[in-house]
Amino acid sequence: MPSVFFLRRGATTCMIVTAALALTTASPVLAQQPAVAEWQFLESSTTPPTESACYAVGIRCFTPQAMQNAYNIPPLYTQGFTGKGKTIAVIDSFGSSTIANDLNVFSTAFGLPHLCGEAGVTCSPGMPTFRILQVQGSPPPNPPPPNQGTGRENHNLWAIEVSL
Q1: pLDDT tens per residue, range 73-86
Q2: Model pTM?
Q3: N or C terminus of the chain: which is more exposed, having fewer CB within 10 Å?
Q4: In 1-94, where does DSSP find H-type helix?
């Protein structure tokens, strides 16, 4: 089944900046929400788009190899620094029911080694492991609904931040 690749372009306002602006102005400052126009359909394919396909529509996208080159990682590999045995944590406040499958699709699409714990992967001894740690013992709740512009957006965001 082909995957559909969407890439986001543009920027959103940082909540901290929004909160800081709210403290210095009399009128409420609304957090910028990405518009549909900030998303770009590239292709429907079983492989991810190439960097040149992204450039052709005026956006940037990066493959794992491009990221390694951007941060000059190959010399570290040459020196024996592979990252093996290190733990990497990805924080996702509301979780994802498809993350194990997403990781499998990503690893397959880019020819990367699979991890024990990915959807459809048979584990073997010594294989790197992907696991989800649910600190509260169960999946997190769904995110709060979007604010409908009550004029108290910054107050509500701060309340959410404090409750975390």
Answers
A1: 999 999 999 888 88
A2: 0.55
A3: N
A4: 15-24, 51-56, 64-70, 74-78
